[in-house]
Every structure is written in C-alpha cells, then in structure tokens.
Amino acid sequence: MADEASPEHPLAISVEINPSSRENDCLPETCPLSPALVDHENEIVTAENQREHKLCAVCGVNNARFCTNCRQISYCGKEHQTQHWKAHKANCFPVKVVDRSSLCESVKPQGRAASHVLVATRDIKQAEVFFQESTILSAPGPWDSDAIEVAKGRPICVSCCEIIRGYCDFDDDDDDESTIRCSKCFWPVCNFFCESSKRHSEYECKILSANNVSSMVLNQMPDYECILVLRALGLKENDPERWMKLLNLEAPIDTCMDAETSLLFLNNAVKFVREKCGLKQYSDGLIRQVASICYVNAFCNEDHPGENGYIYKIATYIGDVSSKVSHSCVANSEWAVIPSEEDHIRFRALVPIKAGDLITTVYNYKKLCHKSTICRQPFLSDHYFFSCSCERCLDPSELNTFLSAVKCPSEKCDGYLLPIEPNKSNSVWTCNSSTCDMIETNTWVEEITESITRKFEPFPYKDPMRGLAKQMTETKRHIVGLKKLVDRYSGSHVHPNHYLLLNAEWKIMQNCYYYIMNVKHWSPDVIDLIVSIGKKHLEIFDKLSPGVSRRRGYILYFLQSGLLESIRHGTASLTKLHKKKPVDPEKQESLKKAYFDMMKMRAESVKIFSFKGGIKNSMEEELLNFSSPDQPFLSCLKFLERILDQSIDA
Ligand SMILES: C[S@@+](CC[C@H](N)C(=O)[O-])C[C@H]1O[C@@H](n2cnc3c(N)ncnc32)[C@H](O)[C@@H]1O
C-alpha cells in the first residue's frame, strides 16, 4: 500500500494521480520542511531511523515502502499503514505537487495550460507554517517603475538585493563609493560580507570582472535583471542538482516571445550574457529558455514598496516546489523569505486549508493585493500569461468591497458603475442601481481613475519609518493633503472604498501612526483618523485578505496604537478626578472594554507578525519590537489599573 495515497486520505478520493507519473509527482525524498517544523513525537519508530533503514513504522520489518505523501515514513503494507494513519496523519507532509490534469474541475486553475499545481495532502491549520524550502536562486529585480520609485536613485546590493541606504550620489567620485562597490567587479554591494557571499563571488563576480561589465550608470537597470539569468546559467556548471530543478520548471518560451515586456527581458538577457559577459557557450535558445523560466516562476519583492511603507529589498526568488503554487487574489497562504545564503522561502496558511484544496498565494503583493481587478488582470496576463478567475476577479463588486466602483454619472442616481465582465479589459460598465440603466465604456472609467490618480501624485511614496518620522511638518502636510483629496472624491466621483482612496487612506494611517510616535502634542483628530480608517480597512481586508494576512496585521497594529492613545487621551482628565472620587462604574466598564479590544488587536497583530519576526530588516520585525510593552503602553496600563482597581497582565 505504501505506494497508494494514505487511507482516509482525502487525496485518495479527490485527486486521481496517474500511476506512471506518480514518482515525479512525489516530493523529493528529502522532505523540504526543516526538522524543527515537523513533529515526530507520535511516530512509533523515529522518522530518521525508519527512513534510513526503511523499517515499517509499525512492526519494524525491513524494506518497507514510503508513504507517497511525505516519503518520510514506511510501512510493510496496507494493513500497517491503515493502523498507523491516526498517529501519522498530523505529521504527513502537508503538500504535494500534482499534475493539473488530474484535478477535478472545481479546484483546477483555469486558463493557459500550466502543468503543475500544489495541493494540500491533509488539513492545514490557520497560521501553520506548512512548507519551507531553500530557493533555487535569488537575484536583484525586477527593475520596474515601482522599483525605480522606491530606490530613488540608490543602488541595490547585487548580493543581498537590499537598497543601499544612506547612500547619496552613486556617481560621485568620493571615498564612499569604494565602500559600496565590490572590490573586484565594482557592482554595488552593502559591505564586505555581501561582496564575499558565495552567491555573488563564486560565479558572476568573476564573469563581470573578467569582462569589465560595469554598472556605472545606475539606472541602466535592465542589466540588474539579467543577473538573475546569469546566476541561473551559472548553476549549469556549479550546481547540477539545482540546474536540473530549474530546467524542470515551467518554461513558456513561445508565450514570452509573443509579449512585449517578456520579449524585452529575453532579448536583454541574450545580449547581456553573450555580448556583455562574453559567454558564447550559451546559445540564444538556452538563454531564452532560462530567461522564460525566470520570468514566469519568480516571486518578487518580498517587502512591498509603498504599500506597507517599507522597502528593503528589490529581489526575485525562484523555488522548486514553491514555483508550483498557483496564484489567487484571495489566497489561502502567504509567503516570506528568510534571508540567508540560500534564501529559504516559506509558506503559512492564512486560513484553515482543507485536504485536497489547491494551495494559492498572491504572486506579487505590491502589484496585486490592494489593486482593483482592472489593474490586477493586465499585470497577471503580462507577467504570468493567465486570466485569473478567482472569486474576487469574477465578482464585479470584488466581494462587496466595491474597490473599482465609479459613481454613476446620471444626475439623480446614487448608484455606482461596475464592470459586467470584470476580468476583461474592454468590459462595459453598468449602474448597480436597479432603477438606472446607465452604461459606460471602459475608456470612460479609465479616464476618471487616471485623472484622480494624477491628483494624488503630489503625495508620492515616502518611507515613514525612517526619513519622514523626523520631518513631522512634511508628515502633517501629507496627512492633511491626502485627507482633503479623499474627502473630495469619496462618494462623488468614486465609491468610498475605491482602491485609489484606500491607498491614500493607507498612507494617511501610516503617517498618523508615525506622527503620534514622534510628536508629543498631537491633536485628537489624528487619533480619530487612525481609528476610523483602521476600522474601515479591517472590514474590507477581512474580505480580500482574510485570516492572518500581513495586511490585516498592519491594520490591526495601527488601529490598536490609535485605540491605545485614545484610551490614554480620553481618560487623562480622569486621573486628576480619580484622586478625589472613584471613577463612575459606567465609565470604568467602557474603559475596560476599550482596553480589552485593544489588547486583542495587539495580540492578533503580534501573532501575524511572528511569521516574519526574527527576519532581519522586515517591517514586521520592527513593529514587533514596537509592540513589546513600551513606555506609553505601560503608563496606560498603570493608569488603568489604578482606576479599575485591579491588576491587568500586560
Ligand atoms: C509560478 S508558475 C506556477 C506553476 C506552474 N503551474 C507549473 O506548471 O509549474 C505560474 C504559472 O502557473 C499558471 N497559473 C498560476 N495561477 C494560475 C491561476 N490562478 N489560473 C490559471 N493559471 C495559473 C500560469 O500559467 C502561470 O504562468
């Protein structure tokens, strides 16, 4: 039996795996989960022992066969596997690569014929880190308009892909320059550690320096993107195992040659590798094949420029099993990279995932998470060559959030225009009011959104965590300016939840947060703003990024900080009063409730941030540090304890 799907296992019923392809469908014998993530406590024979000797986990007999789901445990036959399933179920490897054709229609991603998907082999709990692997490769990029905006002319370290902070003028011929350039190839690096990292020094640095491939003109960034392809080709000689894994990934070379952006990427790669780096041993065809693999399988920009207010890396990662994960705009998992020489990519369940469910994630948070369907679809079709048909993409109201809804131009109508076919770029838009028959073209809607976008341009992305926190006048100007614009367009031109307004509100909320953190005497309006925006966004993102998503984590964190300040502020006057007479029981009750609501939010955001907690330089790590009992928090606690006449555990 051991070569059958496990008994009671839902995959045995829902997914028919073609026996001839079974071996390929199985995960590699080395379970990609790190041992720390696998709990073998309940196994009868220790996994290591039985794996090595292929002993049956029940009777210990030799030469047993592996459980096909996890290949971490063996059985002599069906009887013992069935008997042991109860104990093994919780540890059985949680995901499996399956042939797309073997999936039933209800879970199969629609569109271009991609061959593989990742499916849960058992129930996965919410917040469980269910899968982790070292990446096949990672490299700087993609170098697109967002990266240009965020980098603001600063170089990206060719090794760790971080924006080199504190750097002013890369082309200046001063001392600073030598400290941020690799001493051999002269490409930008953070420090000696990055210069000597295996990833940079072993292959590409030699090629770049031998051929004098310079990166003098920083914004000639297509060369930066080509480092990914150069590194990938380097695997052929230096790491055949990884090279084979890479070649086995989907390579949509013909589709890439047919589309403008991808064709440019492929052609740049050929030019860079053959002409600039002089590597004539790689044929145009092979370079294009590798470039197309890189193009379609990459996970990009782990931290999100602009959206979460923090960008550290402009990086691209390619994994083996992780590259089989499908995209969904309402995903059931989120990914993060733990930086190291091998950059581990890990996945966590945002919501409970049932055995047999497709594992989905958002391929690029920045481009997809907070945008409307009319923005997401072109990105997905340009970069991944498919039309997403997730529940959010097929619903004109985007799960009742009205993220793309535009005010109906008919004078007496209160309705909003929504696209009839939201995942088609040329869809007609109709009014959602039952008494209005207004119809508009996609071009008309685009003109409205473009004109509003232009109005927000004077308030570009800033990095509030660092620079702006010290420039509070500028922060205030942004808060006031953005709020004015939101009020102007909300309800009159677009729906109050329109994604352009949400993006502006997101910036307002962040700026308010940093304002109250850095300014002693703030006006209560700032707190009201954080709290009202936070509550509104929580409601929307409960639908769009449900569960333990980072977006919800940030919202909860900002919201609790506003609530904490509002409890402190609203009760400050009571301190004096309390000295004279006891606090009115009703007030006491409402304070207690506000306090426990705030604590709940704080705890939930900390739980969400723990996914990336410990990852150096992540925004989550920074906020986790903030969320340890800090001064305002402790003084608020003390005050509440006094007036509630009881002690509260922090
Ligand atoms: C990173 S790869 C995923 C693995 C790929 N399916 C395979 O066979 O190896 C990205 C490709 O998967 C396909 N894909 C991912 N999510 C999809 C979805 N929701 N609907 C249709 N196709 C999807 C697209 O063809 C996309 O180019």
UniProtKB/TrEMBL annotation:
<protein>
    <submittedName>
        <fullName>Protein msta, isoform B</fullName>
    </submittedName>
</protein>
<dbReference type="GO" id="GO:0008270">
    <property type="term" value="F:zinc ion binding"/>
</dbReference>
<dbReference type="GO" id="GO:0008276">
    <property type="term" value="F:protein methyltransferase activity"/>
</dbReference>
<keyword id="KW-0862">Zinc</keyword>
<feature type="domain" description="SET">
    <location>
        <begin position="95"/>
        <end position="364"/>
    </location>
</feature>
<keyword id="KW-0479">Metal-binding</keyword>
<dbReference type="GO" id="GO:0008757">
    <property type="term" value="F:S-adenosylmethionine-dependent methyltransferase activity"/>
</dbReference>
<dbReference type="InterPro" id="IPR053010">
    <property type="entry name" value="SET_SmydA-8"/>
</dbReference>
<dbReference type="InterPro" id="IPR002893">
    <property type="entry name" value="Znf_MYND"/>
</dbReference>
<dbReference type="InterPro" id="IPR001214">
    <property type="entry name" value="SET_dom"/>
</dbReference>
<dbReference type="Pfam" id="PF00856">
    <property type="entry name" value="SET"/>
</dbReference>
<feature type="domain" description="MYND-type">
    <location>
        <begin position="56"/>
        <end position="92"/>
    </location>
</feature>
<dbReference type="GO" id="GO:0008170">
    <property type="term" value="F:N-methyltransferase activity"/>
</dbReference>
<dbReference type="Pfam" id="PF01753">
    <property type="entry name" value="zf-MYND"/>
</dbReference>
<dbReference type="InterPro" id="IPR046341">
    <property type="entry name" value="SET_dom_sf"/>
</dbReference>
<keyword id="KW-0863">Zinc-finger</keyword>
